[in-house]
Design brief:
Distance between the termini: 27 Å
Helix content: over 70%
Largest sheet: none
Order of helices and strands: HHHHH
Number of helices: 5
């Protein structure tokens, strides 16, 4: 989450600088690409973790709100529903190994 927030901050600063200089920003700033990559990584990691059910409510709220806001700002990426479905299928294919990983993530054995 921190890496994605930092990429978002860099992108916002770049857009602000372009506005302050009264320069028309190119259709895609390099910082937007970096932000989209960070968001892609965060979405995938969050989909994997949330399908295991190993997160507290505050963390879930923070991450999902951040991802929603990024989506509303026009950032591209797969939907969380599609990613969660994909991870649920992967965990299902792993069988007992997925259960072990879920227990480790939750701090139980």
């Amino acid at each position: 989450l921190q890496a994605a927030k930092e990429a978002q901050d860099r992108h916002a600063r770049s857009k602000e600088i372009m506005d302050l200089m009264s320069v028309e920003a190119p259709s895609s700033l390099p910082t937007k690409h970096d932000l989209e990559e960070a968001l892609c990584t965060l979405r995938d990691a969050w989909a994997a973790r949330s399908t295991l059910g190993s997160s507290d409510l505050r963390q879930r709220s923070d991450i999902e709100q951040f991802l929603r806001e990024a989506h509303e700002e026009g950032m591209k990426g797969e939907s969380m529903a599609d990613l969660k479905s994909s991870w649920a299928q992967r965990w299902g294919e792993m069988g007992d190994s997925a259960l072990l990983l879920a227990n480790v993530a939750a701090g139980t054995k």
